[in-house]
Amino acid sequence: MSAKIIDGNALAREIRSEWKSHADLLIERGMQPGLAVIIVGSNPASSIYVRNKARACDEVGIHSEVHSFPENASQDEVIARIRELNIDARIHGILVQLPLPNHFESSEVISVISVEKDVDGFHLYNVGALVTGNTVFPPCTPFGVIKMLEKNNIAIEGCHAVIVGRSNIVGKPMALMLLERGATITICTSKTRDLAEHTRRADILVVAIGRPRMITSSMVKPGAVVIDVGINRMPDGSLAGDVDFESVKEVAGHLTPVPGGVGPMTISMLLCNTIAAAERALARI
Ligand code: GUN
To answer: Tell me, what's the pLDDT at 153?
Structure first.
């Protein structure tokens, strides 16, 4: 048996075209959605993500602006900019690209973002909303994974979902979003003993651990849905996920590729969150 490969690029395009019509409607009413992205330093991966986000915004008619700061910028400078953006009526979403340089306290910076403009959903208020099932801004990567499952008619309720990775950006919000939809959850970390014991029991396996090709076919239950959130640069310059694609595709029922899987979905969900923020801003006028 060979897994059905979930095409993240195609799905991301479909979602963008659905949401472009929301953006068009807002523009007709005189409110173009706007996203501000703050980037500090010159982490090459972050620079690529930010460029891709700006390009995707253009595609759907979102005004976007990138606020770049040098590596040695102070936290106060960045916070002052966020405060300006919080009261800028053209901006409906503010995103601080992570990771920030070491001399920053990320949680302090994120706590300054207006909760209505926190399109990443990382502000403590929005994290609390997610925990209590009152989600306002679903964090973009796990939101993209949920969309992939839904669009492929994969039932979540009652299944056993195993998440490998416990980051604030992916693992923890992913667990909460699957839990909210009725899955039984196991969260594994890089320290979990007998990892394969857990992963082999997964109906849905989401891997976000940052270790290239760590999940091999013997760690996957036949027919499982395997979602690979990892993106690792290999010594030869190629990209690899956290899942050993070639062996796992022979065992899994569904599998996402890297690149072309979860990555493009994350950006589409950011566009959705930004447009939704603009819609809510219009409703408040
Ligand atoms: N760095 C890696 N992923 C993300 C993300 O989803 N949002 C932000 N702000 N930074 C990231």
So the answer is: 98
Mind telling me the catalytic residues? Answer: 53, 97, 120
How many CB atoms neighbour CB 229 within 10 A? 31
Residue 118 in contact with ligand 1 by CB distance below 6 A: no
pLDDT in tens, 45-78: 899 999 999 999 999 999 999 999 999 999 999 9
Residue 204: CB within 6 Å of ligand 1?
Answer: no
What CATH number has the domain spanning 140-263?
A: 3.40.50.720
Tally of residues, the chain: 285
Q: Which H or E run contains 176?
A: helix 171-180
Distance of CA 235 to the CA centre of its chain: 25
**What residue ranges do the domains of the chain occupy?**
30-115, 140-263
- Architecture of the 30-115 domain: 3-Layer(aba) Sandwich (3.40)
Q: Does position 285 have pLDDT exceeding 90, yes or no?
A: no
Mean pLDDT over residues 10-25, rounded?
97
